[in-house]
Amino acid sequence: SKAMGRNQCSFFKEEMNARISERLILENSMRRGLAREEFYLEYQPIYALGAGRPIVGAEALLRWRHPEMGIVPPARFIPIAEDSGLILDIGEWVIREACRQSRTWTAAGLREIPVRVNLSGIQLRQKNLLDVLQRAMQDYGRKPAQIEFEVTESVLLSEVEMATGVLEALSRQGFKLAIDDFGTGYSSLSYLKRLHVDKLKVDKSFIHDISIDERGAALTRGIIGLAKSLNLRVVGEGVETAQQLAFLTANGCDEAQGFYFSVPLSAPALAEKLRDSRPS
Ligand code: C2E
Ligand code: CA
Ligand code: CA
Ligand code: CA
């Protein structure tokens, strides 16, 4: 009936208003949270799948401890930070914090492993990204070999020209780069030839499907083969079982990370793991 239609309409309106105000609230509290040091990084170790299985890197993953809401997952606040542009300030904080932490580990005499930082597409478009990086590297005495970057495939696909240029500039500075969430972009693969990247990260949905059926396994095998033929290192993410690990190892995957090895860790816990891990 008409009456019901109207009710539904006002219901949706309320729902939408609620969503918009939730975004505004989150946006404002993110801004405040940045000033109040509510953000921190966790580090998930990444393992080489060769002999001894040493830790060869750590992915920096952003966390937000909100005073009332508790830990807010990045999937909930990063999209809002991207829409509002706040991701530039947050992203710069992440870069600087990763550099600071890397220096702390070096100072503690730990074996050097690169910290892998996720970059948002908004940051790639940031005019002064290279300056921001250079300043952070200088302030914390880091060399490009100590910091690596991950950019999601969807970002690379949405703006191929822009992304190609920025990745080339980063690569020229000596930074290693990975394509994150590879395989989820439903794209032609031709863009791969032109990109200055070093690694492909097989999206965890593929790793998950390895154990589901032969098609899942075949897809992952195909992605590994593709990466190899392009001379790229392949990283499997979201590895949760011994079976998935065995599959990746048998099929020539170079590196892996996931709950099977370790959840993302606090900086001291990562340092502890590194001390126990055999050098490469
Ligand atoms: P991502 O870069 O693909 O990161 C991998 C996600 O998988 C992380 O979720 C990690 O905690 C989770 N993970 C690790 N091992 C496993 C596993 O064995 N199984 C499963 N199911 N998941 C696993 P998290 O930390 O919630 O991050 C989600 C996304 O948020 C990241 O996806 C990344 O896109 C984004 N993100 C995180 N930190 C940053 C950051 O500093 N900057 C930007 N721009 N994005 C970030
Ligand atoms: Ca990542
Ligand atoms: Ca990923
Ligand atoms: Ca992802």
TrEMBL record:
Residues 23-278 form the EAL domain. This is PAS domain S-box-containing protein/diguanylate cyclase (GGDEF)-like protein. It comes from Usitatibacter rugosus.
